[in-house]
Amino acid sequence: MSAPRNIVHYVSGQAWEGTTGAFQPVLNPSTGKEQAQVALANKADVDHVIAETAEAQRAWGAANPQKRIRVIMRWIQLIHENMDELARTLSLEHGKTFPDAKGDIQRGVDVLEFSLGAPHQLKGEYSTNVGAGIDTYSMRQPLGVVAGITPFNFPAMIPLWKAGPALAAGNGFVLKPSERDPSVPVRLAELFIEAGGPEGVFNVVHGGKDAVDAILNSDTIKAVGFVGSTPIAQYIYKRCAATGKRAQCFGGAKNHAIVLPDADIEATADTIIGAAFGSAGERCMALSVVVPVGRDTADRLAEAIARKTPDLNVGHCLDPKADFGPLVTADARDRVNRLIGEGIEAGADLVIDGRSLDMSNQEFEGEPLADGFFAGPSFFDNVTRDMSIYTEEIFGPVLCMVRAETLEEAISLPDEHIYGNGVAIFTSNGGAARDFAEKVQVGMVGINVPIPVPIAYHTFGGWKASGFGDLNQHGPDSFRFYTKTKTVTTKWPDESHAGPQFTMPVMN
Ligand code: NAD
């Protein structure tokens, strides 16, 4: 058997093993087998990567923004040319299906396309005659070196959401991707250099808490864009505040789908099943709670979901027949199974039990799937607000139905939940939908749209425990986040010199 491949840091255009000698296995979730080892950085390694980035950033930040976006234009082209290879690698490390992996990459590329508007986004404002012979203008300047710390569940999309605007704005970018699926982030950085990006401007360093803490404690890092679970988001937000860094930290989610009696039940059931179980429920915008309004709506919807769910195919990530693949690790699967057990114990009705999925005799292209981290789709009815399957983010293929008597009761569920990432309403009543969108205490709302991830030129961000910080990801907010504004007030010498003035200048 061949030795597993090593995935190492990528610094100044070179693969770099670092100094620790420490590695961690990278698994294939479909088979449970180790397929690589990823290097783990310590503080000294991270400091070296940051110093290299700072050195390269000076010229990049001073360059005309059009020069920077021409690199990004070629980068987009190279990502498209390498799409199949990237998607296959992503799929094999994450476990999501090949077409879903392509979607992961494309939604990242969308933000690179948006970043091509950097020359426009970086334009300042100008006001003439703010005083006698005085003009004022503002400019947006890069922060310097910024970092992205990203989760396992979108190993291409989220790094690109951070790297695109950060680099286009003239920053140097240090990426600390998830150690569970680290290959694609490295490949994306290599393609950036191949596209003509200067070596050192975009570096990738792998690792866990030690590497993250080194980023947080560095004086050179000026901003951190984080996406991951809520406890880590809060930790990073606090450390950034303590060390004077700008931070945007996006956390976990529990996304509700409210279904009104006038919704088309068959179509809504299909839509909800796709949004709940797609990518094995490992999406921060997955619909994990369905809230039908009224008993008749609930009965019809529960029947349709229970009828359609057993038809789903769970399989190897590269199996074209698979609707979704395995969970990312055995721990993730065991956690899902534990929460299902808690749901039963708390009195919810487990209508479909995904734990019964048996892969022991399954194989794909000669590879046994018995040791893969699979979980079948599960569906609970009669879930209540106090149950852990409702209060906690499960991050697996588990859909919970909470029945509501009225629309007000239904809306109170997402409103009162600690998370506020996404929410959807299914109805043909425009007035009710409009009212819902206006009032609901959640950051991203879908009206008959199950996964309302905003397009690249709008911004993405949840509320409450789903997001910490003032600015969202992508869209115009991203350029605000990755730049600082400088305001210049000018007056040219003229005849009006009147000696020293000791009072605050005001416009009369
Ligand atoms: P995670 O919090 O375990 O890891 C995220 C990043 O933090 C990784 O790079 C990891 O190496 C690092 N990290 C982990 N433990 C750490 C520690 N103790 N100290 C410092 N750094 C640490 O999250 P995950 O499991 O990779 O991703 C899944 C989570 O991300 C889910 O909660 C999901 O909802 C969330 N998510 C949120 C969004 C959003 O936009 N709100 C998007 C995608 C995923």
TrEMBL record:
Its EC number is 1.2.1.27. Keywords: NAD, Oxidoreductase. Gene3D superfamilies: Aldehyde Dehydrogenase, Chain A, domain 1, Aldehyde Dehydrogenase, Chain A, domain 2. Residues 24-488 form the Aldehyde dehydrogenase domain. This is methylmalonate-semialdehyde dehydrogenase (CoA acylating). CDD domains: ALDH_F6_MMSDH. GO terms for molecular function: methylmalonate-semialdehyde dehydrogenase (acylating, NAD) activity. It comes from the Bacteria. It is an enzyme of class 1 (oxidoreductase). GO terms for biological process: L-valine catabolic process; thymine catabolic process. Pfam families: Aldedh (PF00171). Signal peptide: none annotated. SUPFAM superfamilies: ALDH-like.
